[in-house]
Amino acid sequence: MLIALCSVKGSPGVTTLAVALAMTWPHAESMRRLVAEVDPSGGDLAMRFGLPAAPGLVSLAAAARRTRDPAVVWDHTQALPGGARALVAPPGGTHARAALSTLATAPDGPLLPVVARDEGVVVFADCGRVDPGSPAEAIARCADALVLVIGSQGDDLAHAAARLGELARWTPRPGLLLTGDGYPTVDVERELGVPAIGRLPHDPAAAATLTGHRPPSARRRGDNGGLARHAAALARTLAEPATPIASPPATMPPGVPGVPAQQVRRPGGVLISPPGLGPHPASAPPPQVRDPRHNGHQPSSAGKEQRA
Ligand SMILES: Nc1ncnc2c1ncn2[C@@H]1O[C@H](COP(=O)(O)OP(=O)(O)OP(=O)(O)O)[C@@H](O)[C@H]1O
Ligand SMILES: [Mg+2]
Hints:
Organism: Amycolatopsis japonica
CATH topology: Rossmann fold
Region (Disordered): 243-308
Low-confidence stretches: 244-296, 298-306
Structural class: alpha/beta
Strand content: 15-25%
Order of helices and strands: EHEHHHEEHHEHEHEHEHHEE
Protein name: Carbon monoxide dehydrogenase maturation protein
CATH architecture: 3-Layer(aba) Sandwich
Number of helices: 11
Bound molecules: adenosine-5'-triphosphate, magnesium ion
CATH superfamily: P-loop containing nucleotide triphosphate hydrolases
Radius of gyration: 18 Å
Mean pLDDT: 82
Oligomer: single chain
Number of strands: 10
Distance between the termini: 32 Å
Shape: globular
């Protein structure tokens, strides 16, 4: 299974989510889980988890010129905590983009989707920000599911609205995942005209663990901001066959085909949420002032090229 994760603006937590899904994937012990940094602006995992820059995306691109055996992908991965593997990209976009372009434009298609066809394999392709013309698009278009991660402030929604229609056509199972505080989920769904597949809470403590900045053992009581729980619920949803969880009533705006409706406001005001994804406040007024501590998180710009 290939799951593409991407953003359209800022740093809403795509890489963090990829690691969280790999760690919380159902029956993880019997699955080969791979977080593949196919972000053309460069990678963060090597730096975050103290891994060497190679093997990784660049060495795989070189090897893929010599062999088209998909098994070669695993030779270029490294171990992440919790048993998953990582295909790390170099920091900085120049080398990452070049390697990615080589992999994505192979005459017989990119290797990663072939690896992901194995029943015992799940690949989380961290596509980063999918600007038009991104070389990651070729990989995202082969995915079984695509998760667009966005913040919940007005500017985040405006950027998402501009790309949503296009991204929804890339895979059979596109999904919109909200992060952090901002507009209530129901307002976002109404404005964008699609149901969200969930909403990740602002949880700096869990994020610090998932980005290698804090060992799991450093977790203190009362630290549980819910990110791991929400990621596990999302992992269960993605691992299921693509059947809708709840059918939206006729009065709902049209959803994206294949997206399991995760939170549907029925006319009577009852929220339907999957297990583990609690309802979000729908009555709070939209925030007027952007608070950087609570939206889209602090961007991780280390080693990244500035994007226009
Ligand atoms: N749910 C969360 N709560 C709080 N902080 C978070 C959360 N998710 C991610 N972060 C923090 O936000 C920062 C950016 O996260 P991450 O690198 O995952 O974003 P990204 O979308 O991959 O960014 P980029 O496009 O720059 O690669 C990190 O410092 C991370 O610890
Ligand atoms: Mg990232």
